[in-house]
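quick q for whoever's on today - can somebody do inverse folding on this one?? i tried earlier but teh output was garbage lol. tokens:
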């Protein structure tokens, strides 16, 4: 290629003294050429030493991986259930509500953040009260209630809910906590949750708010740890539709779906109160005035059981 004269003349730059000096890694000769050592195939001692360190680290990582694999194998063998005898009857396959063992883990504090909930007094988010009671031994939900200018007067049900959720005191103030600001506002059926005032990206729908809180709250209440997580999600989706469907016929179809999924069990979670039971009870209570005649005894038993357990 053709030669190009320097555009800028060499300038002496006064380096700052606030940083430690460092010797140049590559020394360039006055003619602008690299030292002769870089034109040969012989490697520098520093590079050889670095390669040796790298090989040592890779070897240690390989050994560590083998130890972890061995530990995982041992743990699986230790936790493997004892095999029943060949004459023992096979377990029944009729129970679709299988759940994994509830494992209690420390709450990840980085997941906890205060948030605001905008809700209509006509569609009360009973799930918040249920979670506050269920989590009382693991996580404190501090709820403060306010009324927006779009609401002229609170209903008696909203006042009762507000008194219950604010009067429930924590058992242990040292537990992790989340501050919740509940604002009664004219938002219709679309209850919304806001975690960041600056980035207004709300989570819409009480069911989706419960999903979010289930993931960041106590691990034993996280529905995604259940074996039938897809079934749980389908029930939660049905709860969302029950509240937000405009057609009464569509709402009745959702109630029929609840009834068929319940079967002869007292609740969706079997013996335990789960997120599905809370979401379904809250959704039914929000629409029961319009569907009072369609709530059959099976669903009434579910609502009674949940109401007694968590007070909604």
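ok took a stab at it. sequence:
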């Amino acid at each position: 290629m053709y030669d190009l004269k320097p555009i800028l003349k060499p300038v002496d730059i006064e380096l700052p003294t606030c940083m430690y000096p460092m010797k140049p890694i590559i020394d360039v000769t006055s003619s602008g050429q690299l030292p002769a050592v870089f034109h040969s195939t012989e490697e520098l001692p520093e590079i050889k030493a670095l390669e040796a360190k790298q090989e040592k680290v890779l070897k240690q990582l390989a050994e560590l991986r083998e130890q972890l694999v061995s530990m995982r194998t041992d743990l699986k063998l230790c936790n493997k259930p004892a095999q029943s005898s060949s004459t023992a009857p096979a377990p029944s396959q009729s129970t679709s509500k299988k759940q994994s063992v509830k494992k209690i883990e420390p709450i990840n504090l980085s997941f906890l953040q205060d948030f605001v909930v905008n809700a209509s007094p006509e569609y009360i988010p009973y799930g918040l009260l249920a979670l506050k009671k269920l989590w009382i031994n693991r996580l404190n939900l501090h709820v403060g209630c306010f009324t927006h200018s779009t609401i002229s007067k609170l209903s008696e049900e909203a006042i009762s809910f507000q008194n219950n959720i604010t009067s429930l005191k924590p058992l242990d103030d040292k537990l992790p906590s989340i501050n919740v600001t509940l604002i009664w506002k004219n938002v219709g059926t679309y209850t919304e949750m806001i975690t960041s005032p600056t980035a207004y990206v709300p989570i819409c729908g009480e069911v989706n708010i419960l999903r979010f809180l289930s993931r960041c709250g106590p691990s034993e209440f996280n529905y995604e740890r259940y074996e039938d997580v897809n079934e749980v999600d389908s029930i939660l989706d049905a709860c969302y539709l029950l509240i937000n469907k405009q057609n009464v016929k569509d709402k009745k179809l959702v109630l029929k779906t609840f009834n068929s999924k319940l079967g002869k069990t007292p609740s969706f979670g079997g013996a335990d109160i789960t997120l599905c039971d809370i979401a379904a009870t809250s959704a039914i209570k929000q629409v029961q005035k319009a569907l009072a005649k369609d709530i059959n005894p099976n669903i009434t038993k579910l609502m009674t059981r949940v109401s007694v357990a968590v007070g909604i």
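fwiw The beta strands are 115-119, 140-147, 177-184, 192-194, 203-204. also The two ends are 83 Å apart (CA to CA). so keep that in mind when u check it
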